[in-house]
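> call design_seq(struct)
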């Protein structure tokens, strides 16, 4: 049931396949919502069709764990039955579904850390079983993988969620500091979280991040998106780089794991943007804190909270903070870290190991 490969699966290959598949699933599941959700919310009262589109892109976010499982299984060259078994187990262990006395409710995205653990267990179990089940594989493999890997995922979910919330509370603790320093620290924290398996939206929602804190987190995500776009242009296809910019920089997770130093210019840019975010009182919501300017979620929410709304002066500030500064500083910091400090090479941004 597993596609024959001449390449031996080493630990490095296993980790790279899982992380690359994780990024692919996240991008496929979040980009539609990031690009269309705010536009649909603004237009649905005038044109009902946008309400239907909003439902569609929201439903896709619920399917993110399924997409992650399928993408990871594909990276390992699994055939259809093992592939759907891995996808199903990942969906089960992600916590995207909640069982209550009133029925089943769905939580968009779920816990990405737990999804990462579950998909690793599921694909590892499939590789361990191999062709041992022979003709009984269609009957037994999905059951074994879903019950074992999915069951373990469900069992550890409360503990992993505690860790995720703990990270959120660490970020929340910055809020008690001086405003400028808080903006810097929150922006840097979110610039790191957005290029990890952790959902920035989940963290921001868990700690009810709002106001200037949300704006700082938002700008940290912008710094990561711009940094991955600028660095990725050296070696990756333009479409992939645009996905990191307009969709989510999580698509670069595999490259970051291989060469963590490529996040240094992102952190420097995030620190600068966090300071300007506080100075210009850029605000937002828990959702906008995790999206950056994907689908204009960040800028639209920032304008809503600015005195006077979308005035010319406010739009100029938005353009400065969300476009001019991120790109100008991003280009400089990427050049400085690569050419002057020699922290990494241009090819380290490549998404393939």
């Amino acid at each position: 049931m597993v596609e024959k490969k001449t390449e031996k699966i080493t630990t490095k290959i296993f980790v790279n396949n899982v992380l690359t598949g994780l990024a692919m699933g996240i991008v496929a599941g979040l980009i539609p919502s990031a690009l269309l959700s705010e536009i649909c919310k603004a237009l649905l009262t005038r044109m009902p069709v946008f309400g239907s589109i909003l439902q569609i892109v929201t439903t896709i976010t619920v399917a993110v764990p399924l997409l992650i499982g399928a993408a990871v299984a594909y990276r390992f060259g699994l055939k259809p039955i093992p592939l759907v078994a891995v996808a199903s187990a990942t969906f089960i262990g992600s916590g995207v579904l909640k069982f209550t006395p009133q029925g089943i409710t769905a939580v968009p995205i779920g816990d990405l850390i737990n999804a990462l653990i579950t998909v690793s267990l599921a694909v590892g179990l499939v590789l361990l079983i191999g062709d041992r089940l022979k003709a009984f594989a269609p009957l037994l493999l999905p059951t074994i993988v879903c019950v074992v890997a999915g069951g373990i995922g469900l069992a550890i979910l409360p503990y992993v969620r505690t860790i995720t919330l703990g990270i959120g509370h660490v970020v929340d603790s910055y809020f008690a500091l001086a405003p400028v320093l808080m903006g810097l620290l929150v922006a840097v924290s979110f610039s790191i979280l957005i290029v990890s398996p952790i959902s920035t939206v989940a963290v921001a929602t868990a700690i009810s991040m709002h106001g200037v804190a949300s704006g700082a987190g938002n700008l940290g995500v912008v710094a990561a998106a711009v940094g991955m776009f600028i660095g990725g242009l050296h070696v990756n296809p333009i479409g992939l780089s645009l996905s990191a910019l307009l969709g989510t920089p999580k698509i670069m997770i595999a490259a970051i794991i291989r060469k963590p130093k490529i996040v240094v210019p992102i952190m420097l840019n995030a620190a600068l943007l966090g300071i300007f975010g506080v100075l210009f009182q850029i605000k937002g919501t828990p959702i906008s804190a995790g999206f950056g300017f994907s689908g204009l979620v960040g800028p639209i929410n920032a304008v809503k909270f600015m005195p006077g709304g979308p005035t010319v002066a406010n739009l100029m500030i938005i353009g400065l903070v969300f476009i001019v500064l991120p790109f100008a500083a991003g280009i400089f910091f990427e050049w400085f870290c690569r050419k002057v400090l020699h922290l990494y090479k241009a090819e380290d941004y490549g998404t393939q190991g």
